[in-house]
Amino acid sequence: MIQADDIRSLFSNVELLDRERHYLDTQAIRLSYVVNLVQEFCNQHTVHKILDVGPHFLTRCVKEFIMPEVSVSTLGYEYPKLMPLDLVDEHVRYNLVDSIDNKPVVFNKAPFDLILFCETIEHIYISPNHVLSLLVALLKKPEGGLLIQTPNAVSLNKRLMMLRGLNPFELLREDFEFKGHIREYTMGELVNYGLNVGLSVWRKAFCSYWPHLCTNAIERSMQTLLPPLRPGLTVFFRS
Fold first, then answer.
1. In angstroms, rounded to a whole number, what is the distance separating the alpha carbons of residues 11 and 175?
2. What ranges do the domains of the chain cover?
């Protein structure tokens, strides 16, 4: 099993900016969770080709840790600092917002056995139906996998903020390069979006892989007893 420290060690020789280091430190547990989940899926199914939407820390982790080694392609914008281009089998530069106009995506490697769409959907300002339809068209059928992760819009910490009269969702940012979270989703909403594009649920989980969001013992106990209050959502769909 891959641990959070394994994730951090993988990038120990990369000169990270402060915001990149902070992201890695706070996301290492989640990243190890994803890698182990992907490995489990690969152990149970035939997986040779993986597409990661939005190359980032996870892309490198999948390439380095998943055994036997898989082909990894990426969609979106290059991030060679975190995912060297020589480790990417195929990259297509694409703005997911263009899916609303049915702009096609052509991959020589398609269809993919598994598509990773992690911590991205909340940054997109169009309906997920458009984006998921695009991704499903790139997915192997049947028995392909689509893994989505995103924050839980109705987690305990957000409910508590609302009780104090605070808005738990950030203001729209002036710097459009780093859009922030445009729209967060509930588990039910996320599942329905997958069903809308013809997918079925293989596995779903309310997750607590962000310990920095819950430092209070009472809140941790509530999240243990009531999983829907946890801050993270993970849904693994099948085609």
1. 27
2. 4-238
Contact 61, 35 (CB under 8 A): yes
Average pLDDT estimate for 195-210 = 97
Tokens of 174: 């002036």
Residue with tokens 């859009």: 179
Other residues' Cβ atoms within 10 Å of the Cβ of residue 52 = 28
**DSSP reduced 3-state for 79:** coil
Please give the single-letter amino acid code of residue 58: L
Name the token pair of 145. Answer: 């996998």
pLDDT in tens, 96-115: 999 999 999 999 999 999 99
Contact 109, 45 (CB under 8 A): no
Radius of gyration of the chain (CA): 17
Residue 48's pLDDT band, with cuts at 50, 70 and 90, is very high
Cα–Cα distance measured from residue 64 to residue 85, given in angstroms and rounded to the nearest whole number = 14
CB atoms under 10 Å from CB of 160, counted, come to 15
∠ CA 117-87-31 to the nearest 5 degrees?
Answer: 40
Average pLDDT score, the chain: 95
Given a contact cutoff of 8 angstroms between Cβ atoms, the answer to whether 62 and 37 are in contact is no
- The domain made up of 4-238 has a fold known as Rossmann fold (3.40.50)
